[in-house]
Amino acid sequence: MNFSLRGARLVDARQDQPGGVLTVEGGRIQAIDGADRAETSIDATGMIVTPGFIDVHTHGGGGCNLHTTLAEEILAYARWVPTTGVTSFLIGVVGTPGALPEDQLRAAVQAIARRHAGAEPLGIHLEGPFISERKRGAHPAAWLRLPNPADTERILSLANGHLRLITLAPELPGAAEMIQAMRAASVTVSMGHTDANYDEALAAISLGVTHMTHCCNAMRPLHHRDAGPLGALGRVTPICGEIIADGHHVHPAMVQILFRILGPERLIVITDALAAAGDASAPFDFAGQPAHVEDGVARLADGTITGSVLTMDQALRNMLRMTDATLSQVVGMLTVNPARAAQAADRKGLLQPGYDADLAIFDADLTLHATICAGKLAYATPEWKARAGASL
């Protein structure tokens, strides 16, 4: 569908433009200027239009798990997640007892091939199983493996070119070789669930690690005599860091500190969400482990924090509350920054001509009213439907 949105405030990491006109043709942004060229024109006065959000670290939501052997479950998630402003995501796969998650990787590849509606799965994020036993968090010890060339080759083969991000502990024996092999295969390598010290973290960055998984969580903490991974993150500029912006995983004061250290170009907002995101009252699990929500925090039966029930639209509002970042800066943390990690920044994450028409539309209070995926309406409130009518 070809259409224009006129009168909206257009916000991305590079601009905050009042009263603009955004024109969409053939699923892509055709123009952003003062001219209303499209046959179908929608009055979006008073609304805020941003690029659609990109979640590079999520395990599910809307009752759906992404670590699954069913491609249809992933596709159901893709249809649900636009209700939170997300227009693309990485399929989160974790470990399985005593073996690689082969069936889950196959399901992810099938879902990517079959997707035709909703948010776009940009690829796979494999979180583990090559992680620290001491910092495994909610990942059972039975899932863990040491990096080795045979597993590297097998994972890349199963992913069929769709592995975009892998989380590993760089201090493990064999990790250096895996980092180099993954980088050679154009996979973004992230350090996470790691007990690495400062020097080990720096060495990993020198090998090609450019990402840090959920900063502060499941890693050696920042200490004045042992700076750990966070010290390396603050010291070396090419590396980006994720933050779970629910106010529970990381104290709001630390979120502000990380924003000051990394700046708006290096901080990536994630949800690390589980199937209960969107309905915290429903029963759910993390890769087969029963979980529950207690005072807004997802926990396993033994009390271990596991993922979150955060949604990206709430993360946007949380970041504005917890930091002194501008709306444009926060939007960048949810769009163009994760697009770079997912290797999709040439077509996603900005309101620019030629980019995919992935859009999130908010009112002045930052309540989500509509989500557009590749130029097609994927979610809308009754208010937006009444405004747009039959146009969109």
Description:
This protein has two domains: 3-51 and 350-391, Urease, subunit C, domain 1 (Roll), CATH 2.30.40.10; 53-341, Alpha-Beta Barrel (TIM Barrel), CATH 3.20.20.140. α6 (228-235) links the parallel β13 and β14 (240-244). The protein contains eleven helices and 21 strands. The protein is of the alpha/beta class and 392 residues long. The chain has helices at 71-80, 102-114, 149-159, 175-184, 198-207, 228-235, 252-262, 312-322, 327-334, 336-341, 382-388, and strands at residues 3-12, 15-25, 28-33, 41-43, 48-51, 53-55, 60-61, 64-65, 86-93, 120-127, 163-168, 188-191, 211-212, 240-244, 267-270, 284-286, 289-294, 297-300, 359-362, 368-373, 376-380. The model has no long low-confidence stretch (mean pLDDT 95). 27% of the residues lie in helices and 27% in strands. The N and C termini lie close together (8 Å).
In short:
The chain has 392 residues and is an alpha/beta fold. It has helices at 71-80, 102-114, 149-159, 175-184, 198-207, 228-235, 252-262, 312-322, 327-334, 336-341, 382-388; strands at 3-12, 15-25, 28-33, 41-43, 48-51, 53-55, 60-61, 64-65, 86-93, 120-127, 163-168, 188-191, 211-212, 240-244, 267-270, 284-286, 289-294, 297-300, 359-362, 368-373, 376-380. It is built from 11 helices and 21 strands.
